[in-house]
Fold:
Amino acid sequence: MKVAIFNAAGAIGARMVETFHLSGSPQPVALAPAPAGLARAARFAVSLKLVDPASTESLRSALSGCSSMVFAPADEDEPARIVESAATLARACAKGAIRRLVMISEAGPADRKAAEPEDGAESLPGLLPGPRSAALAEAEAVLLEVRVEHLPLTIVLRTGTVFGARVPSFAELARGLESGEGPRPLADAPWNGLHLDNLVAATRAALSARIIEQRVFTLTDPEAITEEAFRAAVARELGVSAGVATNLPREPTEGTAHQIQGFNVEKQLGYRPAVDLAEGLRRSCAWWRHARD
Structure:
């Protein structure tokens, strides 16, 4: 199966191209609107294609031979471009270009309206409401309207705060901890994070799932942890002080939305986390040390 990854320039898209290629399945095709966006994917022997996000014909041509697609807006994408790209994708999909599309979304709860009736569990925190969050919510609505031969083409994976290699927000956190700067989180605020490799595993599951009754899923790592505890755990892994002494959780969250969402994703998509929180932190900090040096 060939799967187009748009945008391969972002941390999420780049990791998907890398993981899919190295595992041998599915076969990734890297898409980006500018040559620089294909630089990371060009390290591997994968198909590289430049696309015009505003052109239906450009996208249809790039999608030739692909049966599926992942739409993963990059952190630097302007809100208007996210919506424009979703509308162009919808037009391309309506002409039967592909049969399944997985959208990665961080839309904040206040902006998640169009998809709520199909979402079986309560939304967990995503981005704070704002232009980008509103644009992602609008893109969700546009793509969830797409149908090909009455099949539920689009699956939306709503993520918690994604962390891992090349993720700008994690780099900012690590840099702040090492410099002794950066904002302090609320001690009892839930972290609701998602390691990048778990997002890739969930996307792989969404691309191959056969029977899907629900089309919107919220993903976080299964462990219960506060923002303050997460910050402290990152600091310990980096060997610096965060001013907080607290341990990582040993058991998954019980009796919360995490459990409900995890059950839905596991049952309908067959998703299993690729790493636990401790391993996710180790991988993330190992990348940061390498990138920093």
In short: Residues 114-122, 250-260 have pLDDT under 50 and may be disordered. The first strand starts at residue 2 and ends at 6.
